[in-house]
Amino acid sequence: MCIRDSFYRLVHIPMALFDLKGNVLVSAGWQDICTKFHRVNPETCKYCIESDQKLSLNVAPGKYKLYKCRNNIWDVVTPIMVEGQHIGNIFSGQFLFEDEPLDYELFRSQARKYGFNEEEYIKALEKIPRLSREDIDTGMAFFMTFANMISQLSYSSIKLSQSLAERDAVVEALQEREKREKARSDELAAVLDAVPVAVYTTHDPQALKITGNRLSCKWLRIPPGTNLSKSALEGEKPEFFKLFKDGVEIPPEKMPSQLSAAGIEVNDCELDIVSADGRIRHVLGNARPLRDENGNLRGSISAFIDITERKRVEEALRKSEEHLRLLSDNLPDSAVYQYTLDPDGSGCFQYVSAGIERLIGLNSRDILNDPSILYRIIPSQYMGELIEAGVRSAHELSDFDMELPVELPDGRLKWIRLNSRPRRLPEGRTIWDGVLTDITRLKRAEEVLRESESCRKVAEAVDTERRRFFDVLETLPVMIALLTPDHRIAFANRPFREMFGNSGNRHCFEHCFRNNEPCDSCKAYKILETGQPYHWEITTPEGRVFDTYNLPFIDVDGSRMTLEMDIDITERKAAEEMLRDSEEKYRNIVETANEIILITDNEAVINYANSKLVDMLEYPLDEVIGKPIWGFISKECIPAVRQNLEKRRQGISESYELKLIRKDGSPVWTFLNAKPLFDRNGSFTGVMSMLTDISKRKEAEEALANIETARKKEIHHRIKNNLQVISSLLDLQADQFKNREDIKDMEVLSAFRESQDLSLIHISEPTRQEAISYA
């Protein structure tokens, strides 16, 4: 190596010793273009090795070979022989001839092709030695002599040199590895100090030494590197903290770091660290054993997070839930509930406060076990609205707010309000958190308020519109008067004045009835006692009837008065009496009629039927009203009825026979008269039908048809015999008149002959008997 280095310093010709595989054993003067570029890039490095191996083949001992490598730089080689065996080569090169022009474009293209920094690559190129061919010859003469000298040395000396070189390389690699390991160790220490987790490292299987990261030392207010092992030797055990689990101090052998150092994994371990000053820190963590490359235990590592705040929040939450439960159980007019709806549509109550029993008489445990008992106290007419509101709330995740009555077990009726807000869980369940409130008193107060508001508005309207009110009263076609408590007429409208004249503020009993004292039968002033309107009828001595309304009236000055309105209903009473008589008469007619009277709508649904239908079809009315007619008609008649119904829609009335079906399935024949019904706009509204039971007539017709057939046969038989007798008698009679002189006209004979002919025709043609009239 000294010779190599001295030679390079002397002539500045690079050289290297290669084995046959192209590995560089020693070198001197290697140029940057090779070490920093060609030998770094995988592709160009491959070219270097291939060139060194292939171009150095077949070089004779004591000779050298000049060649240009694939990276376009000149090299020379001469072989090294030991005991006639080719063991390596001495290379020189990495130069250009001084008379050779420098092809910058070629090397720039190489830089671009292999990704070299072009400027740096050209600078390295320009540093390459420029030698003459004489310099090469002189240098190679030295190298060949040097190769011959090496050949004289023992191969073992070369191996020793190589081993030493390899040792130096290994030592250098180890030192580099130690640097890297230290850097990684420093990085890991920095990470451990930066993470918000307390990390404890056990340095031996016996857990005699345990150290922690910055956060763990900060928790205990100790300097970094302090031994934290409770398993340490006497005198070294730390006394500045204790570990507790579930309120019991943990012995050293049961601590997480000691357990994991013994090969046991510890998961989700929750502990309490009690420091010397009495402060308690709740922690949660895991511990894992550490093993060496052979799998032997060498310690452990554990990591814990501070859950003190979480525990505090959990305790606060528990107390808050307890307070909330106590509050919800004792709310005066409310109860708290939580309802859950699963994706499959099934639902149940998760929580119902105890106050529910005080509100609606149902135990919370019973509701949790069977939610349907709550639904059973809700009137059926509200269930549809309740279900619809629940579905809408679940679909839109909107607030559920509904007021509805409930029937308590003791029969009382209460009003409740259900108000809740839904939330969707990741698995698809929907949960409502809500409040059930008794609003019975509120409902009653609202009703009273509405009534009070109505009265107030009426009073204001009377006060502000009094004059207009009087103007209206003046134009009304009924008699109206305002009466004071002492029976004076304070106001009378035009019809009243026309009937009784101008009152002049006189007493009503004087002005209207010419009495000196109030009328005993007068009821107009009852409202002054009761404060409520009063309605009654007055019949005058002349027989006229007045429908009288007495209303309380407060004048603008606050004085109480009676407003009396008299409507002459003499004619109406007479008409009503006539109408009642008429309605009673027609009601009796309808109910006692022997026909079914039926009214159907435009869809053939029965709206009305009299009691005759019950007698005829044996159906109760509640099974008929509201039902289509098709269920009561025989199947063979339905097509004809449908066709006839279209005629009703066209305004055509019609009569026809119709077979109905009784409840027991037996048929009944009826004769139907149908009349279409239309509203004022001319729209078809239904059909009114009268159906007469003709079953007996049908049976009689069938029996009569049978009797008529038999009767005709009997008559034919009798007439045939009688006609034969008559025919014979006529023959005898004709013979008596034939020779008598007193017969002046042959008409008698002709009559006899015609009678005879007729009888003979009847006798000879019995099938024509139906065509003969016997009247």
UniProtKB/TrEMBL annotation:
InterPro entries: PAC (IPR001610), PAS (IPR000014), PAS-assoc_C (IPR000700), PAS-like_dom_sf (IPR035965), PAS_fold (IPR013767), PocR_dom (IPR018771), Sensor_kinase/Photoreceptor (IPR052162), Sig_transdc_His_kin_sub2_dim/P (IPR011495). Residues 582-647 form the PAS domain. Its EC number is 2.7.13.3. SMART domains: PAC (SM00086), PAS (SM00091). Keywords: Kinase, Phosphoprotein, Transferase. GO terms for biological process: regulation of DNA-templated transcription. Residues 267-319, 400-451, 654-706 form the PAC domain. The keyword Phosphoprotein applies. One of its GO terms (molecular function) is protein histidine kinase activity. It catalyses: ATP + protein L-histidine = ADP + protein N-phospho-L-histidine. It is an enzyme of class 2 (transferase). PANTHER family: PAC DOMAIN-CONTAINING PROTEIN, PHYTOCHROME-LIKE PROTEIN CPH1. This is histidine kinase.
